[in-house]
Amino acid sequence: METTQPLKGKTALVAGATRGAGRAMAVELGRAGATVYVTGRTTRDHVSEVGRPTETIEETAELVDAAAGTEGRGIAVPTDHLEPEQVRALVERIDREQGRLDILVNDLWGGDVHLDMGSSEQPKMWTMDLDKGLRVMRLGIESHIVTSHCALPLLVRNPGGLLVEVTDGTAESNRGYRRPFFYDLAKTTPIRMAYDLGEELKEHGCTAVCLTPGWLRSEAMLDTAFHVTEENWRDAIEQAPHFAISESPTYIGRALAALAADPDVARWNGQSLSSGGLAREYGFTDVDGSAPDAWRYMAEVEGPGKPADVTGYR
């Protein structure tokens, strides 16, 4: 564990911390000394529609505790962020127990199960299942709105609060069309949310940003897409050469912790940020000591159809 914990005394809420980026961000906030409330729909007693029962918010809280040592703490609170009354109860609990909220992370998703992301020929919007499409909108957009509406009144009580919208892609990379239709909307909207809420929060001395990982080695990406583990993930490069630029969830966790500990974080207000870009700014690395810059790689190598070569990109 690091000897310095710059977030000691801070309270964070990571909404959507069951697995992947959300889990890693919660752990790294705890490692930096924060008390972290972790929420999601999958618990040891209930499995969400995502259908991954072995990844629970209780386990995330335990990982936060293990990383935090004596300072930070992980607190698991089962919450469906599409239910305002549940989110209000969550925020009231945070206020009652901590009296403050310093960091709000909207990492809510779960829409992949309603989209055929692996298809090479993505369907047109009007041929897609409307109910599934609208469910994606609720999971990826409405849940963020509900959470911010309920939690920001607590965040703005103290200057220096930070709202982080988490998505897939940056403002630059999302200028094109990222099929299918409902995915594009769900992943582009948080970028605008961060900009808009940054405008509203700055008069309270608070900051809003949008943050994205690169090609994330989430649990589902590893075991479902490539049938590998974090330990042997490089074996997947043979079937997907550009996977060489991929990054562990810890990388985005370290990006968030660096942002949250920056006394001048307001300089980023309203902006769309990436793990790779922030690594250049703050000097952190991924777990293997490298610093992958996936979005620059995708723009300069993968997008133009060049052979996979991560030289100079990690």
From TrEMBL:
Transmembrane segments: none annotated. It holds the Pfam family adh_short. InterPro entries: NAD(P)-bd_dom_sf, SDR_fam. SUPFAM superfamilies: NAD(P)-binding Rossmann-fold domains. PANTHER family: DEHYDROGENASE/REDUCTASE SDR FAMILY MEMBER 1, DEHYDROGENASE_REDUCTASE SDR FAMILY MEMBER 1. This is SDR family oxidoreductase. It comes from Streptomyces scabichelini.
